[in-house]
Design goal:
Keywords: Cell adhesion, Cell junction, Cell projection. By secondary structure, the protein is of the alpha+beta class. The chain has 21 helices and 24 strands.
Length: about 675
């Protein structure tokens, strides 16, 4: 009998395949190796056998049977578990990948297929001049969203390549590390040597960036070219179940592209996965702002998020304005016009979420705790579709609303006190009809308690709505963002409250507009082209004076104001339930939604979460909250790891701070999102 020591010292044959492009040179090799040979030594031995003089530094071993890379070159074959039956492929770590950006443009570039997706996305964003790469990820289109396009793809595959922006000569694409100096807080303007005007700050982040040589406007400017026919070919979700399909294909950030079945020259979608846009600054974020705007624009056009007719016309007017400015010769200076002093930028961007670029002073006197007190109408839904509407005296203090029979009785006990922390706040507004309502869905033990408040005018609505929004997040009116929230709501109402402009309305023929490019298919069917043009021009009167960047920021702000903004849907089965539900994942909460009606059943805030984990054997996510509340569910429309990563990712993003010198704690991200499978 041979001892294990003697056995380990014996040589054995290992099959190796070399993935190179040299014709006439063999690619299959059989090398005699021992178990104590380390991976680096195996590489050296193979390269000597190949006898081709070239740079092999980007090559590594891919173990196809085990679906993993052998990147730890100091490990021995025994430690890696490699035996005689293993088939290793010696291939490049950086390969070509086609990425479809939020603006529907496709870029072709070399990406690391061996790095974790989180790191790969970071490198991609450096190449594309997009800050805050942690907000983005890669999405593989699911089969359900491709059905409409299959026939067309067969016939139009070649023409589609004309639209591709090739970035394969960039440093990251060549397998070299990206410039580590991402950007500086103390940037000084760089001036164009030809025109003498300040160069766009975004282009100058990377002295060796691939977009510096190419035309950055492709990514920083919007070029709306969609048509009704183009929209018809694209996937449009009709139900919550359809919307769940959109989120099924997110790649695992803790594994490499190769490990997830992505092949060279495959097409993936680069999208903003997390809807918390931190530190949006027009001075540095021309590409980032445009790509967020484009993702929002397509979400509206494809009806991935619901909005009213009034809101759709505002979105259409803003798109029309952006397209006009983008096509005009003045766009080259738009970034320069919007640049502000570094200190002002820091002050105006204190909020984690976008505040619409408001320039008002957000510092306020917080020595006393503000409160609101007004006569409001309380609307309570009754059976048989009847509603009881009655006026009460409402007092808003801290994060609670109390209401009394009248103002005189406000010193006594309230009829009811509503704690808004953790509630859902839904606007119910029709400016034309002078309807200013606030729908509150307040979590209770057995679901959600619905309360409707009706305000008398825009100012009253803005103050109460802003207070409700902050209270739902556990913040009071003493918070520095309260006034900014009020102004944001008022500006949005002002955009809705357009007045008829006789000139614009009576002469839509004189305007070169394709209204079908700016609204979703539902409204193309509802209105004739001339009607749409006239209504979009009416709405355009209130936004016609905006700069290009301001219009994009207003569009994003209006998108953020929609009730469904930031919700990613998944079909789940809760433990103990006999039917499927939809789970909405947002930046600060989880919402259980009835799949049939679309009504929220209950909400759980991340701020009340104690812990969450996954039972990998039965693929079940379990979460514990305060007050002994616990839930468990299995995910039916995607892998449970996807939801686990979403929750951990949002919690990770909530830890970001400008004081952290702009560096990301990648280890913390993987700790919160990776799980222990």
């Amino acid at each position: 009998m041979v001892s294990s020591t003697e056995y380990g010292s014996h040589t054995w044959e290992l099959s190796l395949t070399v993935d190179h492009q040299h014709e006439g040179v063999r690619k299959e090799f059989l090398l005699n190796v021992t178990g104590d040979l380390h991976v680096g030594g195996l590489m050296l031995k193979l390269v000597e056998e190949i006898k081709i003089a070239q740079d092999w530094s980007d090559y590594a071993f891919w173990w196809e049977q085990k679906n993993c890379w052998l990147l730890k070159t100091h490990w021995t074959l025994d430690k890696c578990g490699v035996q005689a039956d293993a088939k290793l492929i010696f291939t490049t770590q950086h390969k070509m990948l086609r990425l479809r950006l939020p603006n529907m443009k496709t870029v072709r570039l070399k990406v690391s297929f061996s790095s974790m997706v989180f790191r790969a996305v970071s490198d991609i964003c450096k190449m594309l001049n997009i800050r805050r790469s942690e907000e983005l990820s890669l999405l593989k289109q699911s089969e359900g969203t491709l059905k409409k396009k299959k026939k067309k793809d067969k016939n139009s595959k070649e023409p589609a390549t004309e639209d591709i922006l090739n970035l394969c000569n960039s440093p990251v694409s060549s397998g070299l590390p990206a410039n580590p100096g991402l950007y500086s807080k103390t940037m000084t303007p760089v001036y164009d040597p030809v025109s003498g005007s300040p160069a766009s700050s975004t282009i100058t982040w990377f002295s060796d960036g691939s977009l510096k040589e190419q035309n950055c406007s492709i990514l920083a400017l919007s070029h709306p070219t969609c048509s009704p026919e183009m929209l018809a070919e694209m996937y449009q979700p009709r139900t919550l179940a359809d919307k769940a399909k959109l989120n099924a294909g997110w790649l695992d950030s803790s594994r490499s592209l190769m490990e997830q079945g992505v092949l060279e020259d495959d097409q993936l979608l680069l999208r903003f996965k997390y809807y918390t846009f931190f530190d949006l600054n027009p001075k540095y974020d021309a590409v980032r702002i445009n790509q967020i705007y484009e993702q929002a624009r397509w979400a509206i056009l494809l009806e991935e998020i619901d909005c009213t007719e009034e809101e759709m016309l505002i979105f259409a007017a803003l798109q029309y304005h952006v397209s006009k400015l983008s096509l005009s010769s003045e766009t080259q200076d738009s970034t320069c016009e919007s640049e502000v002093d570094e200190v002002e930028a820091a002050l105006s961007n204190l909020e984690v979420t976008l505040e619409g670029g408001s320039k008002s002073n957000i510092l306020e006197d917080i020595t006393d705790i503000p409160k609101l007190a007004d006569n409001l109408k309380l609307v309570r839904p009754k059976k048989l579709a009847l509603k009881a509407i009655k006026t009460y005296w409402f007092v808003f203090r801290d994060t609670s609303i109390s209401y009394f029979k009248n103002k005189e009785s406000a010193q006594g006990e309230p009829i009811e006190k509503l704690n808004l922390k953790g509630c859902e706040v839904v606007p119910d507004v029709n400016v034309a009809a002078k309807k200013f309502g606030i729908k509150l869905l307040i979590p209770v033990a057995d679901g959600m308690n619905e309360v409707y408040l009706r305000c008398d005018n825009e100012d009253q609505y803005a103050r109460w709505m802003a207070a409700c929004v902050l209270a739902s997040k556990g913040r009071t009116m003493a918070d520095s963002s309260y006034q900014a929230e009020v102004q944001k709501i008022l500006s949005f109402l002002q955009m809705k409250n357009w007045t008829m402009c006789s000139q614009a309305a009576s002469e839509p023929e004189n305007v070169d507009m394709k209204p079908e490019c700016f609204v979703s298919p539902r409204y193309i069917k509802k209105f004739k082209s001339k009607q749409l043009t006239a209504r979009i021009l009416e709405a355009h009167q209130n936004v016609s004076q905006m700069s290009l960047v301001e219009a994009k920021l207003r569009f994003i702000q209006a998108w953020q104001s929609l009730p469904e903004f930031g919700l990613s849907y998944y079909i789940v089965r809760f433990k103990g339930s006999k039917k499927d539900d939809v789970l909405g994942v947002s930046y600060n909460r989880l919402i259980r939604i009835d799949m049939a009606t679309g009504d929220p059943i209950t909400t759980w805030r991340f701020s009340n979460m104690k812990q969450w984990n996954v039972n990998w054997e039965i693929r079940q996510v379990a979460i514990e909250f305060d007050q002994n509340v616990s839930i468990a569910f299995t995910c039916l429309s995607a892998d449970c790891k996807t939801i686990h990563e979403y929750i951990g990712g949002y919690i990770f993003l909530s830890t970001r701070s400008k004081d952290h010198n702009e560096t990301l704690d990648e280890e913390l991200f993987h700790k919160l999102t990776g799980g222990q499978e």
